[in-house]
User: Fold ATP-dependent 6-phosphofructokinase from Flammeovirga agarivorans.
Amino acid sequence: MKKIAVFTSGGDAPGMNACVRAVVRTAIYHGIEVIGVRRGYKGMVDADFVPMTSHSVSNIIGQGGTILKSARFDEFRDIEWRKKAYDNLIAEGVEGLIAIGGNGTFTGAKLLMENFGIPTIGCPGTIDNDLFGTDYTIGFDTAVNTALDAIDKIRDTAASHDRVFFVEVMGRDAGFIAMQSGIAGGAEDILVPEIPDSIDEVIENLKKGGENEKPSHIVVVAEGEEIGNATFIAQKAKEAMPNLDIRVSNLGHIQRGGAPSALDRILASRMGIAAVEGLIAGKSNVMSGIINDQVTYTSFDDAINKKKPLDVELNKMVEILNS
Amino acid sequence: MKKIAVFTSGGDAPGMNACVRAVVRTAIYHGIEVIGVRRGYKGMVDADFVPMTSHSVSNIIGQGGTILKSARFDEFRDIEWRKKAYDNLIAEGVEGLIAIGGNGTFTGAKLLMENFGIPTIGCPGTIDNDLFGTDYTIGFDTAVNTALDAIDKIRDTAASHDRVFFVEVMGRDAGFIAMQSGIAGGAEDILVPEIPDSIDEVIENLKKGGENEKPSHIVVVAEGEEIGNATFIAQKAKEAMPNLDIRVSNLGHIQRGGAPSALDRILASRMGIAAVEGLIAGKSNVMSGIINDQVTYTSFDDAINKKKPLDVELNKMVEILNS
Amino acid sequence: MKKIAVFTSGGDAPGMNACVRAVVRTAIYHGIEVIGVRRGYKGMVDADFVPMTSHSVSNIIGQGGTILKSARFDEFRDIEWRKKAYDNLIAEGVEGLIAIGGNGTFTGAKLLMENFGIPTIGCPGTIDNDLFGTDYTIGFDTAVNTALDAIDKIRDTAASHDRVFFVEVMGRDAGFIAMQSGIAGGAEDILVPEIPDSIDEVIENLKKGGENEKPSHIVVVAEGEEIGNATFIAQKAKEAMPNLDIRVSNLGHIQRGGAPSALDRILASRMGIAAVEGLIAGKSNVMSGIINDQVTYTSFDDAINKKKPLDVELNKMVEILNS
Amino acid sequence: MKKIAVFTSGGDAPGMNACVRAVVRTAIYHGIEVIGVRRGYKGMVDADFVPMTSHSVSNIIGQGGTILKSARFDEFRDIEWRKKAYDNLIAEGVEGLIAIGGNGTFTGAKLLMENFGIPTIGCPGTIDNDLFGTDYTIGFDTAVNTALDAIDKIRDTAASHDRVFFVEVMGRDAGFIAMQSGIAGGAEDILVPEIPDSIDEVIENLKKGGENEKPSHIVVVAEGEEIGNATFIAQKAKEAMPNLDIRVSNLGHIQRGGAPSALDRILASRMGIAAVEGLIAGKSNVMSGIINDQVTYTSFDDAINKKKPLDVELNKMVEILNS
Assistant:
């Protein structure tokens, strides 16, 4: 293998740059040339390529976002666009691909691989931690700490005013960010899609807090929570307990940015190294991951289709820790 | 003067605790007893008093929120409640009051003072910086840095996706937080109530950014912006330029919390000292403030009624800095 | 079991308070009374006990340090003092102990247990991560991120001046903090006691950096590094390469403080719960830990005497990532 | 004026990049070309010039360090090297200079100006805040907050162990960083060169703390403190009070790095704009500064030679706030 390409796609996540850096430097270490594809599949189709040297990735390990940029490109579902992308890669002499992203990214990579046989390995880059085949995804730890920092700040004002806050955090269909930031933030209640909840239970819990003379109360609500978003649940709570001073805070896009945590930088570096060394070893159509601190490779099929379970024992913790 | 009371009221602001600490320790330094009133005017009416010692305020200089808590208490507009508050204070032996808060807080204090003659000095505690008689209010610098940190994070994801973000920040009717966090965050546009804007100008500016190949674009919108909130303005922009990838982020209550900045801790300490020493010197019905680094006392009337101007020259800076 | 005691001992670590909170609330959840022992073994001998309620641990999950305080007490090696401690505990009705700390803490606990049979479980609280029987210790992740933040700041000034920095980090005899903060900080070289190094290799590496036109260069040195401390190594490097602009920064005690990270708060909470539930289940003389995300109990003997290995593969990463 | 050059020199300071950005964009706004000189006077002599466009300074407003780099170059004291620098600038068509730095930087600029008449304006970039002619220098607020964050962390561990810490902060011959970070950090004592101190007073103060049952105690020591550095003073204290658990922490170079605070970014932007607009207006041989929130120009002579006084009233605050 003489030349590979690396790209980031889908929602950006802190640590993607650390992963790009690891891919570039590992390739150089093994005597392989690297190019970066800008803006994911869109750039592949537009031949928006940039040669990557060791210097290209200097001082990016601590930068949020992705220097290779990302973009939506739904047209990639059509084979004609994938053909164009493949032709561009071949014209450039690319013999292998490293795709950094989530579910959608790997779906595109799998199709490209299946259609044209170009060896491809994925690195799990998403703050949502919703990929099967790795304990943590790149960006998750940073997003949890960003959400936690926000919850800590909200706690200051909640406690000062004896207020109830419903704090909505990201996570798409999964409750990982909500569960971890909620436990770490000492939330009185955490609502995630993986665990059945009801408005009645939320209200019951609010009442219990009041009786225990815990007048401030924080409920962390996952983006994908099934009974509704934070605003909806807050309204229902307000209807049931009109005397409470209830507020909503949707943390939004701050959760995607910022300097990656140590854990995310190391994770991203290990996965980037594993991806390049996997390609060299002849692997393809897999995602590199870390399970129990060991590098693993999971087929794109499993990574995309299998559901990563949330440890529901954590919910028990919330109950105990609010005793 | 043998005994004074201190309380916080209105929206909490980082640095209020540093101010409480300074009030308590300055009183002790001058041989004056201090009690804290919990939950502002509500606690005054409920006689919810707590004796304050030097130890009561240990290690609070860096804590967000207010250990004395705050609460709304609209009933204080009725003189009968103010009478009750006054009677409680007298029963406790209180001879002077330090009120930490904003406009509404000082309005209550002024009425109490005018009705019953209890000497009162205010300290400007609000993140909004909208009080006449001081260059900065307690909490403003911290809130600006919190908003800036969020804008920096949003910039990461905006730049990665070539997106346009409308970021709404707090400030009530004033644009101080928006202007400072916007300039510091390198915002391409800043909308504040003090400066007339129009949707057309916003769109014009967006187009100019596109032509200059600055594909990511951040517009900071003050809470009090007259053409509408961030969501409304974003919709109008989307209608005019449907190809843009436009997002909205409302930073919300995170701006109220967090450890106060160095500037806020020092400011709060100076103002707290000045308030107690002002009471001792026989001042009353005034707010302590810092103008051009000098302690000043401004009448409650002026602090409440006069409008603190926003330096509109700053808007010129935004234009220059986006050249 | 009706009543237990909890204490912190040895060097403080961020997350100890989260662990104390979990111990207290888990005990309450299971109907067990809890007292806190202040200042570790010294307080046990002085009968410096404080009853712990749910409110005692409100809002401490995010606080650095330990509300129960810690102290050195070398006299505990004498059985007469341990007898005194035991008598005090018995007089208080204590039937089980939770010890939060490191090696020295567990050694004391083990002796107390062996002498008098009081059931005891330990929670691994030390920033150094040098305890066998758990993947991470409480405080390690926070300390790594604090060191990383410092390295990031030092990188700013190193890069501006083309300087070489030797940055000394904590970790006692182990290189965990050095290795993780070094990789995450993009260090050009990392010196840890677990891996044989030499001044010659350090200088060789510095020369290689110069040839690769990487004029700024950061070497992270573990406190326990065998060839000497950062100042010594820097002097040797200066002698060999007098033209280099070499500086030393010893990060020192900032690494012990600060709000714990999300990971540390969750880890501490899980370990605290596991410790109490272990006592209830009849376990003793063990440390609760988390290995591969599962709660485990390791005998004090193993925790104290077995050496936790540092993954030397990580050093290979450093070489690759500096290609 | 058609073309100007900008450079940074001396110790780097957070906000220098924000200043470079403002200089570049203001020049572009007024139709003036800009080049950057890399590594200060050394680059001027080496003709190490780089053209600066609006894009050159994108997304640097929040970056620590200086993208133009800095370097010592003592040879600039010889007129022959200044002649070389001047010739290089003239060959490049440079008609004006913006020098970002401190005392040494302005001394070089003044000589160059006096020898060859090239119009030059300085921007005060130093964390030490020791320049006459401006209330704040670029980087000071960030350095104070960085030192404060470290002191807050050290407070965690000091309080947990009832320890005394001597914390040494930067500031060269001035005590600004020490005074502000010390007051904001709630230090029990602050030693700065501007105020006469003695070991006896330090020890007296330590004893008073002990009597007030404030067992933890933080003394902030300015780098330029005349009775000695933190290590020396700590030794003397230990000799006098051998029972105290005394530690020293020298914060070191972390104080130079990091993302600049909002205040520093705005200050740097205003000063950069003022410098370019000053050059256009025909000013030279002056430093732009902000006094009482107004832009001012102070002669290099005054900026270099006059001593900026430290408000010694602040020391009185320390005494009051420790009551």
User: Anything to note?
Assistant: The CA atoms of residues 115 and 163 of chain C lie 56 Å apart. Chain C touches chain A through 47 residues (CB under 8 Å). The domain at 141-256 of chain C is CATH 3.40.50.460 (Rossmann fold).
